[in-house]
Amino acid sequence: MVLNPFSALGLASNIVQFVGFSCKLIAECRTIYHSATGSTDENSTLHGIASDLKRMSEALDVSGQRDATPAMVELKLLAVECKRFANEMLNALEKLQAKNPQSKWQSFKAALRQVWSQEQVQKHASQLTALQNQLLIRTAYLTQ
Question: Of 3-12, 31-40, 94-103, which range is least confident?
Answer without folding.
Answer: 3-12
